[in-house]
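User: Design a sequence. Structure:
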């Protein structure tokens, strides 16, 4: 089974993904795939340079994710252009990796994709888990994690689908507002459920 894992920025998706790995799941990260498709010499990186200029590159020829973020988060048109270049490449690589793993004997494959819904990637997975968090906690975590000012942080939160919209389209929900241990317990229970039963419709919060 392939479980899509998504949620808003700074909701704790990566921690939840790590918890699933601790339980025995195999993880495929869309963020890591996104880094892979823009490696130096890749066609995708060449298209980005053509679209946004050489200023998006580091002195070593790698994509500067910080510069790219500054460019697109404040400009919806630029963000759409970025996504039109990167999403097809990520989609192709993700589909190849997931298909290969799905042919193996793995009980659970977790596809962590922050923009699962925004990219229309739900078809790659069997069911979807969304990680949610109290909005005030989300803002505080983002400010601390990325060293942003409040306006920049709110801008990045607003660039993604609202949490409520993702919840409506998901099969499972984990609220990550509490302690790390509380989240670990819920993830372990969901892992056990997904790998030992086929009954649909469970929602954890």
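Assistant: Done.
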């Amino acid at each position: 089974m392939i479980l899509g894992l998504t949620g808003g920025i700074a909701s704790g998706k990566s921690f939840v993904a790590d918890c699933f790995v601790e339980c025995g799941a195999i993880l495929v990260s869309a963020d890591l795939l996104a880094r892979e498709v823009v490696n130096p010499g890749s066609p995708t990186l060449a298209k980005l340079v053509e679209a946004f200029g050489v200023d998006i590159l580091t002195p070593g020829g790698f994509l500067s994710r910080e510069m790219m973020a500054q460019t697109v988060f404040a400009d919806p048109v630029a963000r759409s252009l970025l996504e039109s270049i990167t999403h097809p490449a990520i989609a192709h690589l993700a589909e190849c990796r997931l298909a290969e793993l799905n042919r193996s004997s793995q009980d659970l494959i977790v596809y962590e994709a922050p923009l699962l819904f925004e990219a229309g990637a739900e078809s790659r997975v069997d069911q979807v888990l969304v990680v949610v968090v109290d909005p005030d906690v989300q803002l505080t975590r983002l400010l601390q994690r990325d060293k942003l000012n409040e306006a920049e942080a709110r801008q990045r939160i607003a660039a993604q689908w609202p949490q409520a919209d993702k919840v409506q389209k998901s099969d499972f929900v984990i609220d990550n507002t509490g302690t790390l241990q509380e989240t670990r317990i819920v993830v372990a229970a969901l892992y056990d459920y997904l790998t030992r039963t086929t009954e649909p419709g469970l929602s954890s919060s």
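Strands lie at 2-7, 26-29, 109-112, 127-132, 172-175. The longest helix spans residues 76-102.
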